[in-house]
Specification:
By secondary structure, the chain is of the alpha+beta class. The chain has 14 helices and four strands. It has two domains: 100 residues, no CATH class; 206 residues, no CATH class.
Length: 320
């Protein structure tokens, strides 16, 4: 009873418009949480009942516990299902993901991702001025170009001409700079996701190294080979999404003239990539190991990878 009273006291301080503030006592059970489960990644509720970790499909929670669909708890269960696209799990009292509230991302990026996105757009401004606009994604090259005096001069001239081209007037350069800065804050999430994807794709490289290490161990070599064969189609589809968003944001004037539509587009791609990559965090962590010499951690990672792919991607064509 003390636990239930404490849960209610905490939830009373939370805003039900921004947090998962449930009323029914079932949501106050120990370790109550929501997550995706099974091969079909369907939302479920987990609770501890003594020594049992009970799993209830979220569609059955309302009927099992007499929660009406149009009640506050019933509506929150729908929000939970939508929210699990953006977070790995949800517990009563957690914040509703900001993707559902205002469209912004609920997860953080590193400073270098912001720097990369901002420098990329500034280089686009400079190259647009000279008539050969290009997208540069290499961090080292972008830093070099961003500190180049001639490039900085082109950026200043480019901003002035863009302000004119947008019908703002050359004296309203700050508004253009502000738009570019705000768009960079959207684009930096794509760069963060690109890093995560590269880490996931790096698993293939490590599996190839493992094949070379164990080429004289016929039995384990076949295990590595099976994992590599399974993981390849599961990775398909990511490259085309990154290429698509890079192409759509490759012309700075198009971005700024259709600013709101471009922000909406980038957020849609961001959310799709994020949802797909959430599941790969587990595999990336498995392979945070050295593969220069044979060791038991490689054997464990290969076998865990096989189980991971077989469990999560039974029909890999769904990822195309």
């Amino acid at each position: 009873m003390a636990l239930a009273v404490a849960s209610v006291a905490i939830s009373d301080k939370l805003d039900p418009n921004t947090h998962f503030v449930f009323q029914h006592r079932v949501f106050q059970l120990p370790d109550a949480r929501f997550e995706l489960s099974g091969r079909d990644r369907s939302p479920v509720m987990r609770v501890e009942l003594g020594d049992i970790d009970a799993v209830i499909p979220i569609d059955d929670v309302a009927s099992e516990f007499g929660i009406m669909p149009d009640s506050p708890d019933g509506k929150l269960l729908v929000t939970v299902s939508n929210s699990l696209k953006y977070v790995k799990d949800i517990r009563p009292g957690d914040s509703i993901p900001s993707e559902l509230l205002d469209g912004t991302a609920s997860w953080r990026v590193e400073d270098h991702h912001r720097e990369l996105a901002k420098n990329r757009l500034m280089v686009q401004v400079a190259t647009w001025l000279t008539g050969d606009e290009s997208v540069v994604l290499d961090m080292t090259e972008l830093r070099r170009m961003a500190t180049d005096a001639d490039m900085q001069h082109k950026v200043r001239d480019g901003i002035t001409k863009i302000a004119d081209g947008l019908g703002l007037g050359a004296d309203r350069r700050d508004e253009v700079l502000d738009m570019i800065d705000r768009f960079a804050r959207e684009l930096c999430y794509i760069e963060a996701l690109r890093d995560r994807y590269n880490s996931a794709r790096g698993i293939m490289t490590k599996l190839n190294r493992a094949r070379k290490l164990y080429k004289d161990d016929k039995h384990f070599y076949e295990e590595v080979n099976r994992a590599a064969i399974l993981i390849r189609p599961a990775m398909q589809g990511f490259d085309s999404l990154f290429e698509q968003v890079d192409a759509q944001t490759a012309e700075i004037m198009v971005v700024l003239k259709s600013y709101d539509a471009m922000v909406k587009y980038v957020r849609e791609i961001r959310d799709e990539l994020h949802q797909r990559l959430l599941i790969w965090d587990q595999a990336i962590k498995m392979w945070n190991i050295p593969v220069e010499k044979r060791n038991d951690r490689i054997r464990d990672a290969v076998r865990d990878t096989y189980r991971f792919v077989a469990s999560n991607f039974p029909q890999t064509h769904d990822w195309l």
